[in-house]
Structure formats: structure tokens, C-alpha cells
Amino acid sequence: MFLRFEENPNTGFVDDRVFQERSEPRVVTHVLRLRGGAEIWCSVTGLDAKGLPAPALARRVEDSGEGMCYLVYGHLWGLRLKDPSCSDPWSLDDPHQWGEPFLLLPADGHDLRLT
Q1: What pTM value is reported for the model?
Q2: Which of the four, 34, 78, 81, 98, has the lowest number of CB atoms within 10 Å?
Q3: pLDDT of 83-95, one tens digit each?
């Protein structure tokens, strides 16, 4: 799988990456992240080339550095995450939200909520 990014206000510039796919993609709604010393379930979405929300996806991959894991990815602008206390719409200007190009999470899937 070839993961391509555009320079954008969500993640800046990120190099393209290649992963060996080991499963079909599934929509992911939340990921477990460490924030302020605690693990919390954060909402996640992908951002398309216009900065609009689009489903975030997860699939099992093999990565040369991580071994077998879940790759969580969005679209050309990567992922957007938000703190569970944030009920605001997705926005690049919201301080309770942040961008990530992609995430590599453990292969057991305990850090994901899939649909």
C-alpha cells in the first residue's frame, strides 16, 4: 500500500510511505491515545484534499519498524483527532483537535473502535 500525503495545514509536510497490507480496510471511529498522562478514546476522521472530513480507515499491515500492526490513515490531509470533551465540528482551528499524518497501533486492535 502506498500512502501519499499533500503538504497541508493539518499535518504540514510528510513523506510518502509504503506498507505491506495484511487485511482489508475498515472504518475506524475512535483511537486510544495518551493525553495529559491518561489514555483516552479520541474521535478520529480523515481529511480529504479540501480539508473536509472523510472516514478514517484502519487495516493490518506489516511495517519494517513496527512488525505487524494496525495502520490508521485518512486521506491526502491525514487524520484529525479530537479530545472526548470536544463536541465541536471538525475544524483546523479548534485547539481541542489535532492532526496526525497516520497512526501505527498494536496488532491486537485494543486501541481501535471499528465499525
Answers
A1: 0.93
A2: 34
A3: 999 999 999 999 9
